[in-house]
Structures are given as C-alpha cells and as structure tokens.
Design a protein that fits this description.
Length: 182
C-alpha cells in the first residue's frame, strides 16, 4: 500500500515537471520552429579543432532539430548526411549504422526511439572533442523511452525535446555543459 502511494506521487511529480502549461498546439509548433532555427544558427558559434567533428555536429543538430519539429522526411535527410559523415571516422562506425537506421525508419516514433542509441554513441565523442569556442549542452528528458530517460546534445540551453517534439517541448533539463577548452 505504501509503495503505491509513493508511485502515485512520483508519477504526478513527473507529469507536472514535464507539463508545458495550457499552450495551444499551434503556438507550440510556432515556438518549436523558432527554437529549432535558433539552435541551428548557434552551431555557427561552435568551433572544433577537428573540422570533421564540426561537420558531424552540424549534421547531428540538423537531425535533432527535425525530430524536435516532428518532420519525418527532413529527419531522414539529416540522418543520412550524418551517417555519411560518420562512416570514415574511426570509432564512429556504430554511430554511422545507427544514423542509417534513423534514415531507414518507417515513422517518426521509430526515429525517436533509435535516436537514443545514437546519443549513447555520440555524446562521449563530443565530451572528448577539442571544442575551441562555444558550449554544447547535454540535455536529459526523464520521460523519454517509457520513463528510462534519454539524452541529447544541443547548442542552446533552452530545452527543445526531440523525443516528444511539441507534445512535451520543454520536458527536460541541462545535465551537463561541454565548454571550449582554453
């Protein structure tokens, strides 16, 4: 009985933590488009010692942005670009295969589920990368993947959830900042 009480409280807290308020779907979609454009623009403020990593990060952000905007076909295009960019990078072969799975996915729900594995592969790469300017934000949504949680990379501190898009745009938190090494 006591466990059910705590589970109920936990579920309610999780729902409240990820609640976007009473915005209309149209307002959320307009907001997500503006936020997606802001994140893509901020990629230009980042610089890496290795130009290949800048290209990979840019393709990754393009994919993430399309998942945020719930644009299935555009996400496929960016995933394909990312898969191509990753193929020739030693140690990123598995990430390339995962990006290809996103390209081949039948729907946005599958793309978002596979995106988790891509992040497991790529977040450590960018944590070790020589970032010469800017900040990369590692963000986390506790609700993603049926409550198992999911991480992603962003160029903006503002949460734009690629796992749910406009359903729960602001669900998540900044888990870590990757700053330029001086």
């Amino acid at each position: 009985m006591q466990i059910n009480k705590y589970l109920g409280l936990f579920a309610m807290a999780a729902l409240l933590a990820c609640n976007n308020g009473n915005k209309s779907a149209t307002a959320e979609t307009a907001d997500s488009t503006a936020l997606v454009n802001a994140d893509t623009v901020s990629v230009a403020a980042l610089d890496f010692k290795d130009e290949k990593l800048k290209h990979i990060y840019s393709a990754y952000i393009g994919l993430k942005d399309q998942l945020v905007a719930t644009k299935f076909e555009e996400a496929k295009q960016h995933a394909s670009e990312l898969a191509t960019a990753l193929k020739d990078v030693v140690g990123c072969e598995n990430a390339a295969l995962i990006a290809q799975k996103i390209t081949d996915a039948a729907d946005i729900k599958t793309q978002r589920a596979v995106f988790t594995g891509l992040n497991v592969e790529l977040i450590p790469v960018f944590k070790q990368a020589e970032l010469t300017s800017g900040t990369i934000y590692v963000q986390h949504c506790p609700m993603a993947n049926n409550g198992d949680g999911g991480d992603w990379l962003a160029s903006e501190e503002k949460i734009q959830n690629p796992y749910y898009g406009d359903e729960m745009m602001e669900c998540g938190r900044v888990a870590e900042k990757i700053n330029a090494k001086k």
